[in-house]
Task: structure prediction
Amino acid sequence: MRSFKHFSAVFMARNREFIRDRSSWAWNVFFPILLIAGLAVMFGNDNRSILKIGVYPVQIESEPFFSLKHLQYVTIENLDNAIVRVKRHQYDLLLDTQSKRYWVNDNSPNGYLAEQLLMANGASTYLREQISGREVRYVDWALPGILGLNMMFGCLFGVGYVIVRYRKSGVLKRLKATPLAAIEFLSAQVASRLWLVMAITLSVFFGTHFFLDFTMHGNYFSLIFVLTIGAIALITLGLLVAARTASEELAGGLLNLFTWPMMVMSGVWFSLEGAHPMVKGAAQLLPLTHIVDAARSIMIDGASLLDVRWNILFLIVFTLFCAVIGSRLFRWE
Result:
């Protein structure tokens, strides 16, 4: 009972401190909203100047359709994945030159033009396969990365930097003289930051979703679960950085050492599909990569928690590692 009183006292004090900090509210709430709105304006009407045609398995040079100019022909290896890309309007037309079939999205204006070109150039023997699907905008694709990026800054700096400031100002030294145990203090910090970050993240998501109508093929519970596990992983990383650090300058440098690689290599702004294998391997060691990949798979591909189980497993293992090491290294002074 006494431990719960200690926990609740620190928990409520940390909440009040955050709520009274107006600059933190401005950064955590208004920045991601402005960023999402800007992306929606810049990339909402992404008019492509050429038609993109997927070809499986090989392009037949003797057919007149393949000699047309201003069309981009992409040879593909996985037919099922290519069909999904047609649903998302990433391919305007998909041709199977072996089975003489083609797929076109009825909701795609470019798909209609590509189909008319196909029929007008001697390809009437192809069997039509009709599919439907909504276009995945860039803002839809980038949203999971923006949410993850905002969580990363809120968790790392909201916990790691704050604890270092407590240590430097002597707050931790005074708390050491109280009956408050280290585990009570750390768990209260984690719980306080977790609910604040999740409340802000979900408010930003549902608030912008109301106006921009993001693509959401998966389950909302699955998305919230992944974001919660990811937030805990990032919070424990912040605790690990702050376990013994006494200088705010050093803490800022260490936090930037973690945040910058995750900003660039975690697939927030662009895909690493064509990157060097070493870059891809390094990206898999970063927690934000697994948060963004799992959230993006749930939202765009309709993946279940079972489908993203390896991302979740990595985040759980990462959390346990940082929590155990951070708690053992933690010092009040």
